[in-house]
Specification:
By secondary structure, the protein is an alpha/beta fold. It has one domain: Collagenase (Catalytic Domain). Helices cover 33% and strands 18% of the residues. The protein contains eight helices and eight strands. Strands 3, 4, 5, 6, 7 and 8 form a six-stranded mixed beta sheet that branches. A two-stranded antiparallel ribbon has the order 1-2. Helix 2 crosses helix 7. The structure holds zinc ion. Zinc ion binds next to helix 7.
């Protein structure tokens, strides 16, 4: 059985992300903002989800039902936790995207801390295949964004993975099919995109909180929560 790894490559990205956000986001009134950066308002989030399968793997035709339920759960969790102060919607790419390359190409040599290498490669490949008008998988409805919407690209990867980057995240398909906390991990990665740090020790795995950034990242999403300290730093 493939090992499921939750790991992160997001710490060093904080400064980059703030800089990047300040360029793309239009500030407007609203109480919800980037973690610890009240100047960077985030009025709404669009989660763009792609089920990505390396070309040497077979896509799971029954996966979409599972994935859709997870996204609905994420949406209600977000709304519940932030009292509707920030909107989150999702767009799910309508079919599995078969990679141009086999697993060996996407997977890095060391995936003990997630799979940031795969994320970079998939981000690049889908950018030209899905997101540009002459791309062979271009889908206008999927790509379209409302004004001021903060996009986060999430790749559900048939392989090893769990990492976040700037406005993007990758996680293993296995989280959704072999655990009951796939939605939780995806939302945890979304929070990294908004600057929220982990609350557990990377070496020992010992949690520093029981919320979604700590041990609560491995609970079904409806039973997890965001601790007040984080909400405070995103809403005041
Ligand atoms: Zn994390």
């Amino acid at each position: 059985m493939r090992k499921i790894v939750i790991a992160f490559s997001c710490i060093a990205l904080f400064a980059v992300a703030v800089f990047y956000f300040s360029g793309v986001l239009i500030s407007k009134s609203g109480a919800f903002h980037y973690y610890q950066v009240p100047e960077v308002k985030i009025s709404s989030i669009k989660l763009e989800v792609v089920y990505f399968v390396p070309r040497d793997q077979t896509p799971d035709p029954y996966f979409y039902g599972t994935l859709r339920s997870a996204l609905v759960a994420i949406q209600s969790f977000h709304s519940r936790e932030f009292n509707g102060l920030s909107a989150l919607r999702y767009a799910l790419y309508p079919k599995a995207v078969i990679g141009d390359e086999p697993s060996s190409f996407y997977d890095g040599v060391d995936t003990s801390r997630g799979n940031p290498g795969a994320m970079t490669r998939i981000f690049k490949e889908t950018a030209t295949r899905i997101y540009v008008k002459n791309g062979e998988l271009y889908d206008e409805q999927f790509v379209r964004r409302k004004k001021d919407e903060l996009p986060v690209r999430a790749f559900i990867y048939q392989g090893v993975g769990g990492s976040s980057g700037v406005l993007s995240a990758i996680m293993s398909y296995d989280y959704f099919t072999r655990t009951d906390y796939g939605a939780t991990v995806l939302y945890h990665e979304v929070l990294h995109n908004l600057g929220v740090p982990d609350a557990y020790d990377y070496d020992t795995g010992a949690p520093q909180s029981d919320d979604i950034m700590g041990s609560g990242r491995m609970k079904p999403i409806a039973g997890s929560y965001i601790r007040d300290e984080i909400k405070k730093r995103m809403m005041e």
